[in-house]
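hey all, quick one before standup. I had two proteins in the batch that finished overnight and I want to keep them in one place so we stop losing track of which output belongs to which input. First protein below, input sequence then structure tokens straight from the run.
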Amino acid sequence: MPRATDDRSTDILPDPVANVRRALTEAGARDTVTVLTDKVPTAAAAAAALGCDVAAITNSLVFELDGAPLLILASGAAKVDVRLVASRLGAGKIRRAAPDFVLHHTGQEVGGVAPVGHPEKIRTLLDESLKSHDLLWAGAGDHNSMFSITYEDLQRITEAKEMNVR
């Protein structure tokens, strides 16, 4: 099992993780960023490392909708139904964003994207199925970092629209 570091110093963290930590604290959320010794680029890997249910992992999935980013915060146990989401938004085709598009709009690489800490605010949807968990875990800006948060705080700090995305 990967070990976590307990260092709270932002000057040794990669910039994307420091940005997430700053965004959390500026939004009034607790700084719960945990840096693991091994990479956790998937929900399954993160759940195994953190000892939680994969459904409590909040995947930050970036899609492209009409040339703009759409961030969907979905349970690690779910597959987003993009046709359903497009229909509910009254939108055209939603497609998974290319890695360079994700990096440009989030400042974070695919596999480590966080719900916060982006250069500019991104339109965000929050998977309602995540409500069933007392504590959620989300990527914190790179492949080694995660943070814990409640559903309510995640919705508040991201200003996400709650939606059934599957």
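OK second protein, same deal, sequence then tokens:
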Amino acid sequence: MMLNSKSVGNKIAAARKKMNLSQADLAKQVSISAQAVGKWERGESMPDISTLNRLAKILGVDLNYFSETFKSNASENQFETTQKQAVEISTTKVKTNSGLSWNMSSGNWVDADFSGLNNLKDKFSTSNMKNCQFLDSDLSNLILKSNNIIGCDFSNSDLRNSKIQTSNVQNNQFVECSLIDTEFSSSEIKNCNFSKANFSGVELKTSDFKSCILENAVWNLSSFKLSSISDVVFNGTIEECSFENCSFSKVTFKNATLINTFFKGKLKGIQFIDCTADRITYEFLKNGKANLTGLTLLT
């Protein structure tokens, strides 16, 4: 979506007037100052993407309305919504509509708030993202390729079926995220918090997975291949998972139950604390010459 501050300002002013709102009225609904609205409308500054989403809902327009290339085929009453509807909309979290043409790839995003967005898919590839917010977002089927993602918060977001490729992922929050069937490949995942995240069906291959918090994460049909795993603690039930030809350093399984989980390769660097395993998992570990102290067989 091509944006120009002067064009965006004119469109905000036009839509605001159709709604019979003053600058002060609009400012109150967006939770900013009337002076800020004035600066937008004069083209002296421009709302970020998250605020444009909120404005689109309040003003009863499509997000693409703010694009320079937007041409409306709708009648004038497209912009007519009641003040009551506008107030109700302004108090809810806004998500992007499906089918939007905007693309934020190859960008530098710092301190941006994209919380509540959806339908991002491949629109952030080859981008630098630092200290951005993606709280409660639908990021399913997201493609992140060659990204640098530092200090961002994806908590409570849905990242299922996503692909994170050749990316640097550090110091991020993924608390209570759904990572079902997500693929991490040729990436560095470091110092991230995955507490209560659902890793079911995750595939992590040819990647570095280091110093991450995994407290109460869900592990089922999860796969690690040709990856370096270090300074992490696995707990809970680990079922139908596989660790194939990985290198381990300071990896701890604590209060964990391992069921039908496949290990292949050298298993030095793993320790067990108060863990149990079924027979087949125990034999895989034994064959890899893992130190089985702290691991007992399930009866």
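Flagging for whoever picks this up: Residues 71-101 have pLDDT under 50 and may be disordered. The domain at 108-297 is CATH 2.160.20.80 (Pectate Lyase C-like).
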